[in-house]
Amino acid sequence: MCRIAGIIDKSLPPAEIHQKVKAMCQVLQHGGPDDEGLFFDERNHIGFGHRRLSIIDLSSNGHQPMADAGQKAWITFNGELYNYQELKTELLALGAQFKSATDTEVILLSYLQWGTAAFPKFRGMFAFALYDTANHLVYLVRDSPGIKPIYYYTQHGALSFASEIRAFTAAGIVTEKDPHWPVRFLAFGHIPEPYTTLKNVFSLPKGHFLRWDITSSAYTVNSYYETLAQEQITDVNEARLLIKDALIKSVNRQLMADATIGVFLSGGIDSSLLTLLANFKKEQQLKTVSIYFNEQNYNEQNYQRVILNKLQGQSFSHLVQQHDFDTFLPQIIAAMDMPTTDGINSWFISKYAHEDGLKAVLSGIGADELFGGYPSFRRIKYLRYLRKINPLLFSVIAGFLPNQYKKLTFLANDHYLADYLLLRGFFSPLEIAKFLDADSKQVMEILFDTSHASGPSSYNEEHASWLETNLYMQNQLLRDTDVMSMNHGLEVRVPFLDEDFTSIVNRIAPSIRFDSNPPKKLLIDSFGDLLPPQIWDRPKMGFSFPLQQWMAAHPEISNSEFYKGQAAQAVIKKFKHQGIHWSKAFALYQIQGHV
């Protein structure tokens, strides 16, 4: 797990490329504190940079950028390849020769053996740049679940890329902001892919690769991952057996590490299940990290103890209080890379995991999206009826709707993002226009750009799962987890998003998969008596902090005079009297100084 960056630019002298790549690596040091590596091909004006967090093969053999023995290809790689041992065995049988025990070298030799057909073979989380010296090509490649990010900029016949957008600014490559980012942020609570806060800097889509032709300075972006049509699983007993087998395999291979590894244990179903499965494999070596609060409505310590009593390994538990939030908020915002209303919890748990000596942890992200753990899975059916209303009506009544119903105006747009924003959006177009002193029609045009691909329109549980997976999890949970954990030099692994596991889950008939009595029933039943009833037979809490109270007591966030404009000030006054959710106040707080 690392941070990567690079430049290909014929207009720049080699010395300047060297200087800029070095600057990119320096600002990304937090994500790779163990080592720095640079590679330059001065003749072709190429520079690759790498910051290393050593997890597999801790020796100098893992130094990057890395080349094969014949230097036919160079790579700078961020992530983990969980099936690298199987691929290595296959490559050895074909005559490949290895000089290290790294998964990085497996990627290199896989490409040299199979070309781009190697990319769908990879199982893991990764973003890498690969330079094919013989064919004068550079590839940027991102994992199919979209766990690891990679951003790129392709103006003026040049390509630049990095793991975080702050690298483009640090090197002076892109300093101009995208003027539309505040609109997107106030609607979504984050910056949705492929956009960023920088103009013309985009996120490479998951399961895609960018192919850059060095000779012509032209590029294409192509998908490499296809979901094959498979027979649906309609027998509940078969589904349970397949889920159990696949998740155990996923957890076992994601525990692979030469560095200290553990599990985030919140006390909920997903983290508890992963912890118990990891305990079978690691036993005394397993470490768990948990957080608890004095505010009892958010405190899951009793549920954490139920699981901890079943473990043999070492557990770390940390109290987080209002004082900690106030003290570390500036650092949390600085760590974000791009504004987000999430990630505070990830920042704290990652901080403590790092301080507890861990370099990698397992997280339960993905289970709610796969098995229907969110309220949206029950609310989606109401959208089906709302979509039968003429969209023009929502435009007509926009100005007359009370505040709690203003988000209905999103439905004036026949767009899947409008469905998502009704379910999970923050502010309505009219509210955003007031905050930014803009026109609501322009707000709509920015949010519902016609360049977006279409989404589903079935308005059932599968539709909700698609929205939660491809929008909320992709744009918010995974991005925030990555940037916050790497800020502390920590790798977060997500077994529920293992490609082999998700392919099985997606084959299960919806009536079985989304059985919600109790929520995530199929997942619970798949493991029989392993998961104690105290964990699943209780109200869902999620991994949440007492942020409603903490932000209301924060001297800046809750001070209406800190905000520009009457519209924003009115929202903060309402927030102070518990009339607005903390995330909306936090969104407006981050906008200050930018508008």
Summarize the structure in words.
By secondary structure, this protein is of the alpha+beta class. It folds into three domains: 2-223, Aminohydrolase, N-terminal nucleophile (Ntn) domain (Glutamine Phosphoribosylpyrophosphate, subunit 1, domain 1); 236-319 and 340-366 and 475-541, 3-Layer(aba) Sandwich (Rossmann fold); 371-472, no CATH class. Helix 10 (344-355) crosses helix 17, helix 15 (429-436) crosses helix 16 and helix 23 packs antiparallel against helix 24. The longest helix has 26 residues, at 461-486.
Question: Characteristics of this structure?
Answer:
595 residues, alpha+beta, Glutamine Phosphoribosylpyrophosphate, subunit 1, domain 1, Rossmann fold, six-stranded antiparallel beta sheet, 17 strands, 40% helix, asparagine synthase (glutamine-hydrolyzing), asparagine synthase (glutamine-hydrolyzing) activity
Using only CA atoms, what is the Rg?
24 Å
| Strand percent estimate | 15-25%
Rounded mean pLDDT is: 92
Biggest beta sheet attributes: 6 strands, antiparallel
Number of helices: 24
CATH superfamily of the largest domain: Aminohydrolase, N-terminal nucleophile (Ntn) domain
> Can you tell me the CATH topology of the largest domain?
Glutamine Phosphoribosylpyrophosphate, subunit 1, domain 1
Which CATH class of the largest domain is shown?
Answer: Alpha Beta
Please count the beta strands (DSSP E, at least 2 residues each): 17
Q: What's the structural domain tally?
A: 3
Coarse shape: globular
